[in-house]
Every structure is written in C-alpha cells, then in structure tokens.
Design goal:
This protein is mainly β. The chain has 1 helix and 14 strands.
C-alpha cells in the first residue's frame, strides 16, 4: 500500500482544498491524493508538476457521496503517464447522486489513460454522477494546438495506373542469345572429407591479356636495327716479320729482307 494525502469531511461543511507544486509527482502501488465528502461538496485539488506518474492502482479523486457535487481537479503537467495500461489508476471527480465535478487537464502528453463515461478496471478519467447520468460532470483536456492536416500535400482524386514493369528472361526473344548449363560444383567436393567427383569441371577464369597492339601503339613496335657494316675479307698469310718491339706479325705479302715466306716442307720420301 502506497502513501495517502487525503482531505475528508464526514459532516456538513466545507471539505477544503489542496494544492501540490513539485518537479514530479509519483503515485505508486495504490497511492492516493483525495478529497472525499459524505454530507457536503467534495473539495478541490490543484496539482502543478512537470511529470505526473500513476502506477499500479494509484488515484487522484475528489468524490462526493449523498446528494452533493463532486469536487474539481486541476492538473497542469508537461507529461501525464499511467502504468500499466490495465492498472486501474484513475483521476475522478465523481458524485453518488449529485452532479459530477469538473476536471481540467493541461498537458503536452497524456499516455496510458483516457476519458471514460463509466468506471472500469482500466486507467480512466471520469467526472460522472453514478445514479443520475444527466448530472455528469465535465472533463476538459487542453493539449497543444496541433492540426493533423498541417503540412500535408493535397492528393489527387484520380490516381494514374502504374506503368507496366519490364519482364526479363523471355525465352522466345532471347533463345539464341543466352544459355544456362549445369556443370557440377566446379572442382569443389560435396564435403571436406570426400574426394573430387568425376563430374567436377575446372575452368580457367582468368581474363585473356590484351593484344600487344592494344597496349603499345604500332608506331612504337618497330625495332631499330643496326646499320650494315662492311665485312673485311680474310686473306691467307704469306709470310711473317718482326716489328720494332720484337713481336711476330703475320703478313699477306713480302715487304723486305726481314720478311720470311712460308715454305711448304717437302714430304719425306
């Protein structure tokens, strides 16, 4: 059982009013802020906070029994949340036989709780007269002015039919241009523990190199050949002589007394 803040009157006379101002107000586990009266009108509740949380059957009530009217509740909160959705947390200004009270809520967001015209097990906001529905009270929700149709583009009444989508794989049109063949697993065994199948086909997937003529311009392919040089004719030596340094030099003709001609030796008889 949670905490309770309560104003009550069991006899005739004013019940009183309660004002709560806080950064946040958390009511949990059947906590209550209430102002109930038996023989007089119920008191008024005024709560001003940034966050109001109602959890697990917690209530804010100002109810009247007998013929008197329910009180008034004023809630000013940035956000109001009631959990869980079926937690039976309520904001009520009800009366038993008299007129219901008035609930005024000003908030930027209201979550998990809604206005209802009867008491249920859900989270609800009520200001009703239980025995006389004609005396039901008023629930006034003040939320930020927002026009749902704002910034919406006007749509045409007649919608054009979509263009047909191009279809591929037309066998009649492309029968002679493409083929599909199943050639096996391409060299991969069925499992790492099995050998290659005879149906396995290996294929070299490397791309062919470009011809050399496409890489190097034809003008640069002509090789520069060396020019022809005259070849000296080789003549058989006819003699030899010695130079100034005493080296022997072969000659093709006789040039003086120092020249010695080759004389073939006579065969032995």
């Amino acid at each position: 059982m949670g905490g309770i803040i309560q104003l009550s009157s069991v006899a005739q006379g004013q019940t009183g009013s309660l004002k709560v101002t806080a950064n946040s107000v958390f009511l949990e586990n059947q906590s209550q802020i209430s102002s109930n009266a038996v023989a007089s009108p119920a008191g008024n509740l005024n709560i001003d906070t940034n966050l109001l949380l109602l959890n697990n059957g917690s209530n804010i009530t100002t109810n009247a029994f007998g013929l008197d009217a329910g009180g008034n509740i004023s809630l000013n909160a940035d956000v109001i949340v009631a959990l869980p959705l079926d937690g039976d947390s309520n904001i009520t200004a009800n009366a038993f036989n008299g007129p219901g009270g008035q609930i005024t809520i000003t908030t930027q967001g209201l979550f998990g709780i809604a206005v209802s015209e009867s008491n249920t097990d859900l989270n609800e906001i009520t200001a009703i007269s239980q025995n006389n529905p004609q005396l039901n009270g008023i629930v006034d929700l003040n939320t930020p002015d927002a026009d749902p149709s704002e910034n919406l583009a006007e749509q045409p009444d007649d919608v054009e039919s979509p263009q047909p989508i191009a279809r591929g794989c037309q066998t009649r049109q492309f029968a002679n241009q493409s083929r599909f063949k199943r050639l096996g697993r391409g060299g991969l065994p069925i499992s790492p523990h099995s050998s290659l199948s005879s149906l396995a086909v290996w294929q070299d997937l490397r791309t062919d190199p470009e011809p050399l003529s496409q890489v190097i311009p034809p003008s640069e392919l002509t090789a520069t050949l060396p020019t022809d040089t005259p070849v000296q004719e080789i003549t058989e030596a006819q003699g030899w002589q010695q130079d100034d340094q005493g080296r022997t030099v072969l000659t093709t003709q006789r040039q003086g007394p120092s020249h010695y001609a080759f004389q073939p030796s006579a065969p032995n008889c």
